[in-house]
Automatic annotation (TrEMBL), chain A:
Listed name of the protein: YdbS-like PH domain-containing protein
TM region(s), chain numbering: 18-41, 61-81
Residues covered by the YdbS-like PH domain: 84-156
Alphabetic keyword roster: Membrane, Transmembrane, Transmembrane helix
PANTHER family reported in the protein's UniProt record: BLL0215 PROTEIN
Keyword field contains Membrane: yes
Automatic annotation (TrEMBL), chain B:
Record's keyword terms, sorted: Membrane, Transmembrane, Transmembrane helix
Entry protein name: Cytochrome C biogenesis protein transmembrane domain-containing protein
Keyword check for Membrane: yes
Organism from which the protein derives: Candidatus Terrybacteria bacterium RIFCSPLOWO2_01_FULL_58_14
Transmembrane regions: 43-64
Length: 175, 71
């Protein structure tokens, strides 16, 4: 669970667009349907059906589908745990790179200098997703969160939170 | 045949169970306030439980002795 400071509010938590997971999801669906297609095609193609009992086929099917189910959720966790959180004090970027690899970066809202939205390509334009780039003063590399839905609204939330943070002044957790 | 099947089945069960625990752990530990991680985790665990019990039931119903005669 994300640890918040005292009196820190979450303005919004944003995840990547569903398009990012669509390929993995479609692949999982294909793998799930493959044994059914094989079962249907076996008499049509006159393939030699293996002399196995129904429980054995059921066992293999259940294990296959369990593997597909678990694999699909592994891919989903990789997608779902990439989060861009805007609180009243900071911007937090959480990226899950694999089952045992995770990066968490945060920056204080008072240090935000510039927020840029990038939308390149047909799909991002039609499906309203893009990158949000947060630049701080003096930093060589920007804070980038990719494939965010409605990036312009997210940019507005960051700018509003930045204005509120400046009006409030640095809190006890400022460095 | 039964011993081989049991050994293989146990290995597969162990592997899948480890993967299920890993995914559920991630979904429990890395949630963000206000999201639906708990719901996603419960759906995943419910599905995994269904597949687990279906696989164990199917394994117990396989006529292992008859499979030896088919070889």
């Amino acid at each position: 669970m994300l640890a918040l400071h005292d009196n820190e509010r979450v303005h919004g938590a944003y995840r990547k667009t569903w398009v990012v997971f669509a390929t993995s999801g479609a692949l999982a669906l294909l793998f799930a349907l493959a044994p059914l297609v094989l079962l249907v095609l076996t008499p049509v193609l006159s393939l030699p059906a293996a002399p196995v009992s129904a429980p054995l086929v059921t066992l293999v099917l259940m294990l296959w589908w369990w593997g597909v189910w678990t694999g699909a959720f592994f891919a989903f966790v990789n997608y779902y745990l990439d989060v861009f959180v805007i609180t009243s004090e900071r911007v937090i970027r959480i990226e899950q790179h694999g089952p045992f690899s995770r990066t968490i970066a945060e920056l204080r809202l008072e240090r935000v200098q510039d927020v840029t939205v990038e939308q390149h390509g047909i799909l991002p334009t039609l499906l309203h997703y893009g990158n949000v780039r947060v630049q701080t003063a003096g930093e060589a590399t920007a804070f980038v969160f990719r494939a965010i839905p409605h990036p312009i609204k997210v940019k507005e939330v960051v700018m509003e939170a930045h204005r509120e943070a400046l009006m409030r002044g640095p809190g006890p957790h400022a460095t | 045949m039964f011993a081989f099947g049991l050994a293989l089945f146990s290995l597969v069960l162990l592997g899948f169970s480890g993967a299920v625990v890993t995914v559920a752990f991630h979904l429990s530990r890395y949630s963000v306030p206000g999201d639906r991680t708990a719901l996603v985790r419960n759906i995943f665990l419910a599905g995994s439980a269904i597949f687990f019990f279906a696989a164990v039931t199917a394994f117990t119903m396989v006529p292992w002795n008859e499979l030896d005669s088919l070889r």
